[in-house]
């Protein structure tokens, strides 16, 4: 059981390049999330998807777009990468059926933008 | 003001010690509460949910104080393997929004 799988694990981009981070979960969860984590800061929500076909902005959506391709997959796209987007990106999923359902995380994508 | 605040530490304790972390949250509409553990350069992993009446899982005890808007985590008989960063997570009324504290770093020394 893989849980939440993120690809790639590492990536280096030049300013202005575009890239898509992939995330897939095999737990049949309804909700999926993208976070970024910067040194000394907690995880900050970029976008989330409560269910297939819906997406909503989180705290820090500027510079990103997302696609909920199907129930399993939720991708994050950087259209024109900027050095400020250098970070570790985590994807997460959870069952949306009730309160107190925790999130399960992928092992992250480490992205550096030069 | 941050939604969730934690003392960043580090807390340096000897093996076998008892250590407690607190976390405060600002939104009284907060619904669900969790403690996650994050090892260096790894993903956060759920340690335990926090229930209104308090709950225990082995050496770990979590408490919720809604009146004062804080949650706590107590670790008894600390092990070297407990060394990690502990993240406080709060879910506010919109069930899909989770707010993370910046984490409290724990170093357990021999």
Content of β-strand of chain A: over 45%
Secondary-structure element pattern of chain A, one letter each: EEEEEEEEEEE
Based on helices, strands and strand pairing, what is the structural class of chain B? mainly beta
Quaternary state of the chains:
heterodimer
Number of helices of chain B: 0
Mean pLDDT of chain A: 92
For the terminal residues of chain B, how far apart are their CA atoms?
38 Å
Total strands of chain A: 11
Main pleated-sheet profile of chain A: 7 strands, mixed
Listing every helix as H and every strand as E from the N terminus to the C terminus, the arrangement of chain B reads EEEEEEEEEEE
Q: Which of globular, elongated, flat, extended, rod-shaped describes the shape of chain B?
A: globular
Largest interface, with Cβ-Cβ < 8 Å? A-B, 25 and 24 residues
Task: Show unreliable segments of chain B.
Answer: none
Radius of gyration of chain A: 13 Å
The number of helical segments of chain A is 0
Rounded mean pLDDT score of chain B: 92
Question: What percent of residues of chain B adopt helix (DSSP H or I)?
Answer: under 10%
Model description:
The complex is a heterodimer of chains A (114) and B (110). Chain A has 114 residues and is mostly beta strands. Chain A is 0% helix and 49% strand. Chain B has no helices and 11 strands. Chain B has strands at 4-6, 11-14, 19-25, 32-38, 45-50, 55-57, 60-65, 70-75, 84-91, 98-100, 104-109. The interface between A and B is medium-sized, with 25 and 24 residues.
């Amino acid at each position: 059981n893989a849980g939440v799988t993120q690809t790639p694990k590492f990536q280096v981009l030049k300013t202005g390049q575009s890239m898509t981070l992939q995330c897939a979960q095999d737990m049949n969860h309804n909700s999926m999330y993208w976070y970024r984590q910067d040194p000394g800061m907690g995880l900050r929500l970029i976008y989330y998807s409560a269910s297939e076909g819906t997406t909503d902005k989180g705290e820090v959506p500027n510079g990103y777009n997302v696609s909920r391709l199907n129930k399993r997959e939720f991708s994050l796209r950087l259209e024109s990468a900027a050095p400020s987007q250098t970070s570790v990106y985590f994807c997460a999923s959870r069952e949306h059926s009730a309160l107190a359902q925790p999130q399960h995380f992928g092992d992250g994508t480490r992205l550096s933008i030069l | 003001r941050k939604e969730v605040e934690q003392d960043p530490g580090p807390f340096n304790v000897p093996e076998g010690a008892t250590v407690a972390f607190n976390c405060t949250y600002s939104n009284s509409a907060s619904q669900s509460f969790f403690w996650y553990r994050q090892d260096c350069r790894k993903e956060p992993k759920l340690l335990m949910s926090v229930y209104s009446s308090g709950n225990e899982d082995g050496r770990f005890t979590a408490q919720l104080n809604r009146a004062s808007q804080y949650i706590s985590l107590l670790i008894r008989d600390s092990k070297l393997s407990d060394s990690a960063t502990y993240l406080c997570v709060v879910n506010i009324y919109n069930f899909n929004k989770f707010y993370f504290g910046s984490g409290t770093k724990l170093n357990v020394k021999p």
